[in-house]
Each structure stands twice: as C-alpha cells, then as structure tokens.
Amino acid sequence: MAAYGDAILRVCFDHEPSEADLDRLGDHERWRLYRRMVQSRIDTLLGSALPRSLERLGAEARAAHVAAWFATERPRSRYFWRLPLDFATFLGPRLCAEDAPLAELLRFERASWEVRQRQTPAAPPTVGFSFERRPVLDPSVLVLHFAHPVHLADAPLDQPASTHLCLHRGADGALGVLALNPIAAALLEAMREGEGSLAELVRGVTEARGTAIDQAFLEKLGELIATFLERGILLGSLGD
C-alpha cells in the first residue's frame, strides 16, 4: 500500500510521470487526467491565497516554481488550506536575493492567509478594560514588520517604506489589517507577549524608546486603545 501511495504522489507531482508508475496504477490516460486535475486544483488555491505575489512573479516563473515545488516537496499536508503556506515557505528563500520586495509581499500574503484560515484557541475570560490589569488580545492577532508597503495594493511595492502591521481575524472571519507606527507596534507586541498590566507594559515600551508619557502621548494612547477595542484586537482585561 505504501508503494502504491508513493506511485500516486510521483504520478501527480513529478515533472513527468514514469511509465513504470503509470503501469503500476493502471489506466494511463485516466491517471494523466487525474494528475492535471490535482495540479490545477492546487494551483487555483495558490492563486486565491497569494494573488498579488503570483501576479508579480509572472505566469512563466509561477509555473516553473510550482512545478519545482511539486517535484521536490510533493505536497503532503493533511489540510488542504495549508498548501499555500507550504508553497510560500518553499518559494520565499528563492525570491530573497532576486526580488526582496516580492519576498516581503509573499510573506505578507502567507501570513494573511494563515490568519484567515487557521483555528485559534479560545481567549481567556475577560473583564471590563483596565490599565491596571493584563490586556487580553484576540488570539488571531499577529504583528509583522516590513521594509516595503506590502499592504497597499495601489502603492509602488519597490519604493522602500518602513511598515508595521497588525493582522487579525474579525468576528465575520474577514482579515483585518491595521497599519501602526513603531511605538504602537511595540506596544501591541508587548501586549501579546508580556505578563504585566497594560500600565506596566506602556511604561516598559516608552522607557525602552526614550518616549515621554506626556499629555499628547496619553491622548494618542487613548485613541489607539479605542481602535484596538473597536476592531476586536483587544478583548478586554484578564479577570481574576
């Protein structure tokens, strides 16, 4: 049975199926048709998950990279939705040297797809928001940093621009993308990873960056927290 399964993988994903494997499986034409169907279905999924990256890559290079991935990695994930993650992991290192902005765009689209699709654990119980308690973020929240404006489809991707993004999944399952300044990004990361109260986390971030907690800062902080709460990024404060 294992040998039969390996033959199916080779027929579906090798650059060309061997006559020996086709003989093992039976009807050559039926298996060649099945091969085309499998590859077409996966390629369609990749296009849904990584549309801008694959468009910039171009049809010829896309076909070559997908064929190389099929032949060398032979998609094996038990979960169909994970195949774009596996392909992006395969493709990313091959793009870094030749097209760094595209490699960043691919990383952004890979993360966006994962945030939309993956199951996340339930958040711990919360109480009303308080600066004196530990903040609780939605488990889908992810903070990423880029050297190019990867989230702006209408902006020149090749023009460098320091970009800090919060990705999260909304209540309707849709992807949310929020651009942040460096301090807001650092604070959100501290809220995601830190153990103390929000007041303690704010002090830690500002002290590390030499930022004064003045009236202007507090007003902006209030607006940021309101945005986090409104968008469901921040769920409240940890209960007792």
Can you describe what's shown?
The protein is mainly α. The protein has 2 domains: 1-118, no CATH class; 120-240, Outer Surface Protein A, domain 3, CATH 3.90.930.50. The chain is 57% helix and 12% strand. The protein is built from 10 helices and 6 strands; from the N terminus they run H-H-H-H-H-H-H-E-E-E-E-E-H-H-H-E. It has helices at residues 2-13, 19-25, 28-49, 51-57, 59-73, 83-96, 100-117, 182-193, 198-209, 215-231, and strands at 126-127, 135-137, 142-146, 163-169, 175-180, 234-238. The strands form 2 sheets. It has a 3-stranded antiparallel β-sheet with strand order 1-6-2. Strands 3-4-5 form a 3-stranded antiparallel β-sheet. A hairpin with a 5-residue loop joins strand 4 (163-169) and strand 5 (175-180). Helix 1 (2-13) packs across helix 2 (19-25), helix 4 (51-57) runs antiparallel to helix 7 (100-117) and helix 8 (182-193) crosses helix 9. The protein is elongated. It starts with a helix and ends with a strand. The mean pLDDT is 92.
